[in-house]
Write a structure and sequence with these properties.
- By secondary structure, the protein is α/β, with parallel strands linked by helices.
- The chain folds into 2 domains: 171 residues, Rossmann fold (3-Layer(aba) Sandwich); 172 residues, Dehydroquinate synthase-like, alpha domain, CATH 1.20.1090.10.
- The protein contains 13 helices and 11 strands.
- α6 runs antiparallel to α7.
- It binds magnesium ion (MG).
- Magnesium ion binds next to α10.
């Protein structure tokens, strides 16, 4: 088992190891004196893993409850959180009890938000079961739900008490979900780690996935420790996301996964940046080749003008400008604010 310590306002550990799921209760016992634990999971993950986690919790003296919601982004809304609160109440959760988020990004974001707000905040543990959640959304303390007007518009910063990553859970994952996570994995190599990028080029990431997860989480930990509330450095995690979010929106959040959208967004941006002399020559070809190796898109059939106009509505925009993350070269990046009025000229459209 590997351990990564995160020294944010609330300090916690991220544990990575095969088979940790069966000892989840024992590991959670080390961070809480809670009497009760409610496991939150979706209709895909609960049948696979909920029983194992619940029996481990029981063995470690927890009274347990379970809340299962229909899998999918469309569940990530306040009405689901309200049902979750009802289950917390029926399970007699008190301020000293704990919530266990077992699943992908939707589960973690929503259970985290419910934990941040129920009784003005109770502890929660993340057990991410998708690659995307393991390398990204379970780390950093961002929790949220969607509104009809946009994704993640209501939320809170709420750090977990513990994150338990069992890479064996990836064995049951359909390939498209692995690809989804690889979009973020490649991003980490691009923004911070040439060695990670080179390993992804030279080896099959799935053969060394434990180490890949460790590398990605370490990078995210470093960034988040410096900027817990997302006012500065954390922006670099958004590489590929500004165009990526626009692409997701233009696809009505279906047919293109988050990781695919981030991949295409990173590739399109880097191609233009290289042409403009912002990014070192040869970077774009190398990025495209790596994305293709993992079955990820490097372009979009949509017109750049449409992508740019969808980008203007991004929630990461500040004032009249939008912060874009550009690569100097593989492994190194910087943030540059581009005024809305300059965007068409800058991106050559
Ligand atoms: Mg992302």
């Amino acid at each position: 088992m590997k351990k990564i310590h995160v020294a944010t306002g609330r300090k916690y550990d991220i544990l990575i190891g095969r088979g940790l799921l069966d000892n989840a209760g024992g590991l959670i016992r080390t961070v809480t004196k809670a009497l009760r634990a409610v496991v939150v999971s979706d209709s895909n993950v609960a049948p696979l893993y909920a029983e194992r986690v619940i029996s481990s919790l029981k063995e470690n003296g927890f009274e347990t409850g379970l809340f299962v919601f229909p899998a999918g982004e469309s569940s990530k809304r306040l009405s689901t959180v309200e049902k979750m609160y009802d289950r917390f109440f029926e399970s007699d959760l008190t301020r000293t009890d704990i919530v266990v988020a077992l699943g992908g990004g939707v589960t973690g974001d929503m259970a985290g938000f419910a934990s941040a707000t129920y009784l003005r905040g109770i502890d929660f543990v993340q057990i991410p079961t998708t690659l995307l959640a393991q390398v990204d959304s379970s780390v950093g303390g961002k929790t949220a739900v969607d509104l009809p007007s946009g994704k993640n518009l209501v939320g809170a910063f709420w750090q977990p008490s513990l994150v338990i990553i069992d890479p064996d859970t990836l064995l049951t994952l359909p390939e498209e979900f692995l690809r989804d996570g690889m979009g973020e994995v490649v991003k980490y190599g691009c923004i911070r780690s040439l060695p990670l990028f080179e390993r992804l080029e030279g080896e099959n990431a799935y053969d060394i996935i434990d180490e890949v997860i460790y590398d990605c989480v370490s990078i995210k930990r470093d960034v988040v420790e410096h900027d817990e509330r997302d006012t500065g450095e954390r922006a670099i995690l958004n590489f590929g996301h500004t165009f990526g979010h626009a692409l997701e929106k233009l696809h009505n959040y279906s047919g293109l996964t988050h990781g695919e959208a981030v991949a295409a967004g990173a590739a399109i941006l880097t191609r233009i940046a290289e042409r403009k002399g912002v990014t070192e020559k040869g970077t774009s070809d190398r990025l495209d080749a790596l994305l293709k190796k993992y079955g990820l898109p490097t372009d979009s059939e949509l017109a750049l003008a449409d992508i740019l106009s969808a980008t203007r509505g991004d929630k990461k925009s500040t004032g009249k400008g939008i912060n874009f993350v550009f690569l100097d070269r593989i492994g190194s990046c910087f943030v540059k604010k581009i005024e809305i009025s300059d965007m068409a000229a800058f991106f050559g459209n």
